[in-house]
Design brief:
This protein has helices spanning about 15-20, 60-70, 115-125, 145-150, 180, 200-205, 255-265, 275-285, 310-320, 325-330, 355-360, 365-375, 395-405, 420-425, 445-455, 475-485, 490-510, and strands at about 40-45, 75, 80-85, 85-90, 95-100, 160-165, 165-170, 215, 225-230, 240-250, 270, 290-300, 335-340, 380-385, 410-415, 435-440, 460, 465, 515-525, 530, 545-550. It is of the alpha+beta class. This is ABC transporter substrate-binding protein. Keywords: Signal.
């Protein structure tokens, strides 16, 4: 049994891991490729938006994309970069050019060799306009990104493959942490069957990957996605024979997961917030309860260019009106803690406690003062959208009531399935506030600041629709400059100082409204399986390390 603990991430420790790979170590190979002892691991989830590695951006899609594909680097559960298919990663003195050597002779599940060209293909495919990928911005620093985004090119001018095991990446701007980004699923290699520069629905329905698992049939929408062990996997082979993901009704998914675990039909489950105390009391003595403080953060996302939250004063009014302590104690029963930052406490060197002054304590007088300045008059309607079935109903309702009681506004709650909510956030008519959460894709505070707030992460078309994770439409040139400069700074202390300054700038603008730091709670069938002692960096079960107990 693992109790709740703080994640032990040290950004500087990444340097140690990278130094080892630059010397050619850590190829991940071993004589013992793992013993397959079979077993079927069953879990429930909502319908993902996509499982295509170049497009996957939400929890279920990322879980499956990472099971199907393996890239250059990965992350340990506690946030250290570790090599996967990369044998080395080196940069020039200015951090503008990176060279990767990849492990030779690994294959996709269709038998095709995974070579340098397959990586170049996968990256260009994910960044191309035709993919309409919300995670394409992870490639924004590579030369030729703009041409892929506007559809005028089909390859990165900055990515070359001198030989089958070498990838050279030239950046448009210095990035001393670029290697960390290659742990993202968008940086996966793809086989020749994947189409570049055109819509590729077929591949997205049944991706052909190089990961520890492969598709068992095609995606049965709103029913199931099944995986089977990939016996041709080039690294440590998975032990499980199959993974079965049952796709649940989005309105009641978390409760169905919980009920399914109790009935013995699921081996892993999230826990509805009202059931946390009951679940802990029942399953902790059985060693089936799991708790961990993670890198995830929860926010109220205000649409910054339209509607009632299009000004800083209105956003400050909303933040001051929220009583986070009361919700943490009442709704979350003490299982979550209030947040006062954008960058999580999991990054101790970058963490700036109480940076959000309006988040520290509810202040009715200031909430009303800023509401008047920001045009939030009594009776103003604010739409509050959230995704159903994931345990958000109770705290969203609590915030809505506090806003109505303190500000006199009318909050219109709007529950949707998760893909529907994400799509609406991107639309030109998006307005009001949204339930929003973010977990790091790679271990650096930049992975909160750049995706969520940099203008390069907001590709807005002529109609006002956006692609990318800057859903608040935050656009501050000074903020962008700080992030860009920090990326190119080798000295860790200087880089972190700039990240802190940028976070304060965004917080002063109230670009995002922090609510709660994230602690994760799960039920796990430890009586049936080994390898359920942790969750991975993305807060998912580590499928490739799970084995059935004999």
């Amino acid at each position: 049994m693992r109790g709740a603990k703080s994640a032990k991430w040290v950004v500087g420790a990444v340097v140690v891991a990278l130094a080892a790979t630059a010397c050619g170590g850590g190829d991940g190979d071993s004589k013992d490729k793992g013993s397959a002892n079979g077993g079927v691991f069953r879990l429930g989830s909502t319908e993902p938006d996509t499982i295509d590695p170049g497009r996957a951006h939400e929890s279920t899609g990322v879980l499956l994309a990472n099971a199907l594909f393996t890239g250059l680097y990965g992350n340990t559960p506690d946030g250290l970069a570790e090599p996967a298919l990369a044998e080395s990663a080196t940069s020039d003195e200015g951090c503008t050019s990176w060279t990767f050597k990849i492990k030779p002779d690994t294959k996709f599940s269709n038998g095709e060799v995974v070579d340098a060209e397959s990586f170049a293909r996968g990256w260009a495919r994910a960044a191309h306009k035709a993919a309409a990928s919300d995670v394409a911005y992870h490639f924004a620093g590579i030369k030729g990104y703009e041409q892929l985004q506007d559809g005028s090119a089909k390859t990165f001018s900055g990515v070359t493959t001198p030989d089958p095991t070498t990838i050279k990446v030239d950046l448009s701007k210095a990035d001393c942490e670029f290697v960390l980004k290659t742990a993202h699923n968008a940086y996966s290699p793809v086989p020749k069957v994947a189409k570049v520069g055109e819509e590729d629905k077929a591949f997205g329905e049944a991706p052909v990957g190089n990961g520890p698992f492969k598709m068992d049939g095609t995606w049965e929408h709103n029913k199931a996605i099944n995986l089977v062990r990939n016996d041709s996997y080039g690294l440590q082979k998975a032990s499980l024979e199959k993974v079965q993901v049952t796709l649940l009704n989005d309105k009641t998914a978390q409760q169905l997961e919980y009920d399914g675990f109790q009935a013995g039909t699921f081996d892993y489950a999230h826990i509805p917030t009202p059931m946390l105390k009951t679940a802990e009391a029942k399953y902790k003595p059985q060693n089936k309860w799991f708790a961990k403080d993670t890198n995830g953060m929860n926010f109220v996302l205000p649409i910054g260019d339209n509607g009632p939250t299009n000004n800083k004063d209105a956003r400050l009014a909303i933040s001051y009106a929220i009583d986070r302590q009361a919700i943490a104690k009442g709704v979350f029963q003490g299982y979550q803690t209030p947040s006062t930052t954008i960058v999580p406490p999991a990054f101790p060197k970058a963490y700036q406690k109480d940076l959000c002054v309006s988040c520290v304590k509810q202040d009715v007088a200031k909430a009303k003062e800023y509401a008047e300045k920001g045009g939030l008059k009594p009776g103003t309607e604010i739409k509050f959208s959230f995704n159903t079935g994931a345990g958000h109903e109770e705290w969203v309702q609590a915030i809505a009531k506090q806003l109505e009681d303190v500000l006199g506004v009318k909050v219109k709650l709007d529950g949707k399935d998760f893909p529907g909510m994400l799509k609406e956030q991107q639309g030109s008519s998006a307005t009001g506030i949204y339930r929003f959460a973010w977990g790091a894709d790679y271990p650096t505070p930049e992975n909160f600041l750049f995706p969520l707030l940099h203008s390069a992460s907001m590709n807005k078309d002529a109609e006002g629709n956006v692609t990318g994770d800057n859903r608040v439409r935050y656009n501050n040139p000074e903020f962008d400059k700080l992030i860009d400069t920090a990326r190119g700074t080798k000295d860790e202390a200087a880089r972190l100082a700039m990240y802190k300054q940028a976070e304060k700038m965004a917080m002063d603008d109230m670009a995002l409204i922090p609510t709660f730091n994230r602690s994760q709670f799960r039920l796990m069938a430890t009586d049936k399986f080994n390898g359920l002692d942790d969750i991975n960096f993305n807060e998912d079960p580590i499928l490739e390390k799970i084995s059935i107990k004999k």
